[in-house]
Amino acid sequence: METLKSNIAEWGIETRSVGGEFGCGDDALIHWHLTGGLVAVVDGLGHGPSASMAAHAALDAIRVNPDDPPGQILARCHEATRRTRGLTMAIASIDAQQGQLTWFGVGNVQGTLVRSAPGHTPVRESLLVRSGVVGHRIPPIVPTIVPLEAGDILALATDGIRSGFESSILPEEDAQAAAARILACHGRPTDDALIVVVRYRGLS
């Protein structure tokens, strides 16, 4: 696959189902508009068709209006997946006009923001994740808001990617190549896996 691009960002996605099963419980939705966008990663509990059903229900709920505030999107996903086995998820909303990222995670998901410019402390910022299962039990969520600059790299992953992958992200690497490498090097063979890598370009 090639790296995909919008006026705001460029990105790559890699996913695989455990053992080549039909139906993957790990999925993602990326939506851009003129001044921002949304990146969502979902992981249906377990694997196989039932996990895939939960993931699809959540993504369908997001598509109703991906420009809604992240908290509203979470609430809609929670309602839409009540009759499924549930899922974990991460949502990152980018506002290019304000130069900021609003993000949160529920359950066993991972996220990191790699700073491109020197002088930032820390160089990497991690997604704040609260315990819970979307569709069954979600905690009160207060999304974290952090500044965002052109060249910063956002990566969101399911638990099918081993922790520690963020230390291997290279600021200059092609987004799709980075996603493919991370899945190959850090993917767990016993679970569905997904990684999204986004390089923010800012408003041109």
Describe the 3D structure.
The chain has 204 residues and is of the alpha+beta class. The protein has one domain (4-200): PPM-type phosphatase domain (Phosphatase 2c, domain 1), CATH 3.60.40.10. The chain contains three helices and twelve strands, in the order E-E-E-E-H-H-E-E-E-E-E-E-E-H-E. It has helices at 49-63, 70-80, 175-186, and strands at residues 4-5, 9-16, 26-33, 36-44, 87-95, 100-106, 109-114, 124-126, 129-130, 144-147, 153-158, 193-200. The strands form two sheets. It has a six-stranded antiparallel beta sheet. Strands 3, 4, 5, 6, 9 and 10 form a six-stranded mixed beta sheet that branches. The longest helix has 15 residues, at 49-63.
Net shape: globular
**Major pleated sheet:** 6 strands, antiparallel
Overall mean pLDDT stands at 92
Span of the ends, CA to CA: 25 Å
- What is the chain-wise order of helices and strands? EEEEHHEEEEEEEHE
Into which percent range does the helicity of residues fall? 10-25%
CATH architecture: 4-Layer Sandwich
CATH topology: Phosphatase 2c, domain 1
Number of domains: 1
CATH superfamily: PPM-type phosphatase domain
What is the helix tally?
Answer: 3
Share of residues in strands: 35-45%
Widest sheet: strand order? 1-2-12-11-7-8
Question: According to CATH, what is the class?
Answer: Alpha Beta
Number of extended strands: 12
Q: Ranges with pLDDT <50 over ≥5 residues?
A: none
Helix-strand makeup class: alpha+beta
- As a whole number of angstroms, the C-alpha radius of gyration is 16 Å
Briefly say what this structure is.
With 204 residues, the chain is an alpha+beta fold. The chain has a single domain, classed as PPM-type phosphatase domain (Phosphatase 2c, domain 1), CATH 3.60.40.
